Amino acid sequence: MNSTPRRVENIVTDKGKVPVYATGIIDQPWEGYSETDHDVWRMLYQRQRELLVGRASDEFLVAQDAMGMTPDRIPKFADLNAVLKAATGWEIIGVEGLLPELDFFDHLANRRFPVTWWIRRPDQLDYIEEPDLFHDLFGHVPLLMVPVFADYMAAYGRGGVKAHGINPDALVHLTRLYWYTVEFGLIQQKDGLRIYGSGIVSSKGESIYSLESDSPNRVGFDLERIMRTRYRIDSYQKTYFVIDSFEQLMEATGPDFTPIYERLADLPSFPAGELQADDRVIHRGSGEGWPTDADT
Ligand code: PHE
Ligand code: FE
Fold first, then answer.
1. What percent of the chain shows pLDDT beyond 90?
2. Which segments of the chain belong to CATH 1.10.800.10?
3. What is the value of ipTM here, to two decimals?
4. How far apart are CA 54 and CA 40, in angstroms?
């Protein structure tokens, strides 16, 4: 599955006819975006950028500017790719939505980041159940400009292909790592705690909550601790894990995970909000407002 994707058919969408490739890749139908689509991008972009200065990691903000993403229009993937490819060898590919796990891992391993081509409706600015263009592009793509993070994402993809070949349990453990780093990670910067996870940077409410609320736990990064921790898909996180640097993340995830998966197979998982005895606790959450049904 390492070859260039093969175009297999044209499908008709409300944006016109678009080609679909064997791997689920789709050409960004840029001319088909409506003024409303561009408005949604502009509103979300401006709102988040304003909020994220002083909240998102400096590396995220610098990278986003360097890419040439602007609020005025939905960016063209081809324009961003020219910059991104030159910086770290990554490229964006358009997709309709979530991909089968193995396809997703294979894309990452080959430095292709799948971005959903469509954007949410104006009545979904605050919350959307599945990833859209704003989450994928605004949230995930900027850090792919940063060499160490770019390498981490590709290593994750290779690790995913490997875990997929081990057993479903290995995948569960690996997915938690993605969740608590790529999607919901915090980073300790010299001048304070900052956000780098895309699930947070693309959400107004969670950008504030993750840093400023008393409710959630904030705990120092620990690979196996994270792999054992359940998470929430329908509410803000109960626990956020904090890295000191992307280099720390890269180093901690460098070793072969195979023996770790074997060891963890016999160990119970932790509820999302439960602190553990060896945690490096940065903030003990008050637990206020936490949902009480089971975590994922
Ligand atoms: N070292 C991991 C493994 O052997 C691969 C990996 C790297 C996974 C970085 C996640 C992040 O499976
Ligand atoms: Fe995401």
1. 84
2. 1-165, 167-296
3. 0.96
4. 23
